[in-house]
Amino acid sequence: MKREHFTIVLLLVVSYGMYRLYEPFWMSIIVASLLAISTHHIQMGFFNLTRSRFWASMLSTLILSLLFFAPLGYFLFHFSVLLQHLDPALLEKIDINMRDKIAHLPPMLSNIEAKIELSLNRFNATTFAQHSLDYASQLGGFAVSFLSHTVFILAFYFVALYYGKDILEFFKRSAHFPQQESTLIMFEMRASMSVVFYSILATAVFEGALFGLAVEYMGYNGLLFGIMFGFASLIPIIGGAIMWLPFALFEFSMGHTDNALFIASYTIVVISIIADTFVKPVIIKIINQKLIRPQDKINELIIFFAIIAGLATFGFWGMIIGPAITVLFLTMLRITEAAPQEETTR
């Protein structure tokens, strides 16, 4: 066997061993790497301020944990506590009030009445309250698992920021990848992923704040429900309805018809129509012009479907992974398309 063949075989064997060794962490490594690419501008801003790659990476990691992971931990903790202290009498009252409400629906809504009544018959308030501790325990287990996963993401995120440039240069030298093409891929990934990440973050914070102010006015925990709405808004099309519809139904079942109409109309008009349709594009435009300034923008519809596909395939982190795969694929198509033209020019 020739020396170069032996080296290739050995490399493949060791690569497979590395894959199996780090298999439990690959999702964390991929997400952390994509987040590092997306937040490159924050890293460079801190580097220009501190002139230290270590402190720039540390501050970037701290900012990410505070803005993204701390609210999620707050939500998981408080929602778990809420389930543990669920009042069975409150559930019984909701069940009775809902049955009384649907009994007085107009005849034209008879089909809806039958479906609601069927759902209420399947729901047993006492049983649900008895199992609320089990639900809280399951949520707590999920929270611990998610937060431990988050710790690994933050650790790999710091490593990706601190050693990212050296790792990238090493792989470019090892793979003998053309300088121009590797630069194009990194530029496209960095620009497009930054647009996706900052847009998602800005939208979630903005719409979550709007919903939180409304429920705070109604006497509820605006911070908790604002965080819940912010994460729900990441789901395209139906995200907001996951929050405001149960909220409106709860108020309606408690006899607070004015509150139910207020939260429904406020969310649809102020958040879904005004904020999402008119304000959100302005925010994205500002991000593009002031922070990122990509030369070639990817169609927003493509990014939209990439987020949906990513969520469906990879779960929560698919909103980052889906656009990344799509951007990489489109970039490789552009390189492939340009290759014959370069050969012709030569």
Explain this structure to me?
This protein is mainly α and 346 residues long. The chain has a domain of 101 residues. Helix content is 86%, strand content 0%. Helix 9 runs antiparallel to helix 12.
Helix and strand arrangement:
Elements: H1 3-21, H2 26-38, H3 40-50, H4 53-84, H5 88-102, H6 110-122, H7 125-130, H8 132-175, H9 179-217, H10 222-232, H11 239-253, H12 257-292, H13 300-314, H14 318-345
Helix pairs in contact: 2-8, 2-9, 3-4, 4-8, 4-10, 5-6, 9-10, 9-12, 9-14, 10-11, 11-12, 13-14
Main sheet summary = none
Please state the average pLDDT score. 75
| Approximate helicity band | over 70%
By DSSP, the count of extended strands is: 0
Shape: elongated
What structural class is derived from the secondary structure elements? Answer: mainly alpha
Taking the alpha carbons of the first and last residues, their distance comes to 38 Å
- Strand-residue fraction? under 5%
Count the helices. How many?
A: 14
Short summary:
With 346 residues, the protein is mostly helical. The protein is 86% helix and 0% strand.
Looking at this protein, list some descriptive labels.
single chain; 346 residues; mainly alpha; 86% helix; elongated
